[in-house]
């Protein structure tokens, strides 16, 4: 039976140091169909797609196109085989025009001169937009477009390769309803031309409108493939979250104290909308949601990195104005940020210099001279307390493992003696051992009466560690659950906005 | 240590590389020193060594300021012009029987600090690239020194003033002591004070520094002010030594200072570096100039050699760092 299937990925496995990202995963896609690929953050969808577009080479498994086994060598190799992809993260070149972005690397030239035939390039782009029913000026600079328009350029670019298989990774995360309709029209045209679309999205209503078949992944494994008409949002969510062997979390019940932080109607442009909550001493408040739900933006607004557009923050009952991280630190808030390399660490400096940074003034005399011995003592104590594996406190942070780097960030913030500790994805990308140690640290801090906010995209972690969970979707709080009412299905439903 | 000895020959090679990576620049300086001592009988004499140190002192003082700036990830192109403006303004109040010698000194330092402060203020508040701000400031300050002196060198300076750059203490030229003093101040600020730690933090990751509650703007204001202050000091010493406040003084000094910093292993990317490296970098440039003079190499050709050494030093640095 030589091939019902346009694309078959069979038995694909891929490991990274310490993580089995894909374990024996299968994906079969028909020509002329839209195939949705579904799973939680970290389920392995993106990794699987990076295997398909040649970015990663699988450790095991086979990829077949129309029944023929193929080797995919790099992004270029994937394009040559007729596979193109729209990425979740936009990567346009803002200073170049729409047409230049679309035809980058394959610009039409005059003969063999290497001089770009700008007129033909713009004409080609215009024709492309016409067939897609888009209104766009090919010679407009990307920087003058809205994010939604940039996304449409990216979509047009992926289609311009005339590929057989087009992967769309969260294509609607940045576009408006009107453009979504446009995109769906384009997808129908592609289907009619017997192309295959692999569609990744968390938005239930879209999936059920556009997909012909759905494949569910979980924890790097293949779960099931079903035609859409055999599925309901509920059954889909059940497949996504599955029934997992409960991971062990060291969460302890700590008596809750008074309210230390209360957030009232906080908004940050359109990214955070009218969020209100309270946080008590000894409490671990989990914030769940999918990527782009506005969770990081919420805590960055509380911490003074972003300017709120509305709302009030009270600490210990008193209204406070937090205009910068300095203000936040003065009000004894700590933020262990999502991206430790971007915001958390000075990778070029030593463990000591990183750990003592926030609180350096406390280890200085009045003239600003560092009391070196005291500083070293304090840093050594932090290294012991958080079991940071280093050869010496002088070790440069860049040379540490991810887990130890994360512990350095935590050690640094705890040294500042905060009352409110915000941890944004505290265990992302670190190994199991370090993860469990960080969970223990959180419990110890809660026992000391600190108030903790933890953002996590891993459902088991949120469920296992929190006293209470806020779920966000589209910048809003779409659900709040007390520990007694925790359920993966309910949280997932709130996170996908399908309530 | 034990790892290296266990690993045998291979470990030995790694160890050599580690030593080279750490001390490469010192080794290069030592090799140069030994070579010149053997080659020229005049090189390793007390007078010649003092001569080298004196020649180094002005560039060294400017380079200490440049080190602070470069560790924050910035650059200061205006220091050469600040040398001239400080020289001219200090000299114009240093005529015999006018003011006590402290007045021209304070004027020169104040002018330098003020120019640097303006640099820092614009860079911090306007969020403009340091390259652009200090390039503009370089032209403005050079113009100001020409306007102020009407394009003519300021001469007829008091003996006391001329002693600053031309005097001796215990047979050692005064500028050498002043150089050492500035190095000690720079090293103290950078390696023993909160300010220095903040300088590294800003250059290593400005966003992380902001999130950690540092006042990044104030750190930048501080380093550019110090760079200007030291350049002003260098302008005083220079005008005193040549007994002239010349509006043309200091041309290209900013590049010599940057060269000394870079040869000393401080990365232009910011976040790393040390004053000691800059001292060695300054000595390498000074020794090389002196050695090439002694070897009768033409001053035209010397420029070519200097350029080659700058590039080689950074290449060596990159190579040893990557193989670590």
From TrEMBL, chain A:
It is a peripheral membrane protein. GO terms for cellular component: plasma membrane. Keywords: ATP-binding, Cell membrane, Membrane, Nucleotide-binding, Repeat, Sugar transport, Translocase, Transport. It is found in: Cell inner membrane; Cell membrane. GO terms for molecular function: ATP binding; ATP hydrolysis activity. Residues 7-244, 254-499 form the ABC transporter domain. Pfam families: ABC_tran. One of its GO terms (biological process) is monosaccharide transmembrane transport. Its main location: membrane. PANTHER family: CARBOHYDRATE TRANSPORT ATP-BINDING PROTEIN MG119-RELATED, GALACTOFURANOSE TRANSPORTER ATP-BINDING PROTEIN YTFR. Belongs to the ABC transporter superfamily. This is D-xylose ABC transporter ATP-binding protein.
From TrEMBL, chain B:
Keywords: Cell inner membrane, Cell membrane, Membrane, Transmembrane, Transmembrane helix, Transport. The keyword Transport applies. One of its GO terms (molecular function) is transmembrane transporter activity. Pfam families: BPD_transp_2. It is a multi-pass membrane protein. The chain crosses the membrane at residues 23-44, 56-89, 101-121, 128-148, 168-190, 221-238, 258-285. The keyword Hydrolase does not apply. It comes from the Bacteria. One of its GO terms (cellular component) is plasma membrane. It is found in: Cell membrane. This is Sugar ABC transporter permease. It comes from Pleomorphomonas carboxyditropha.
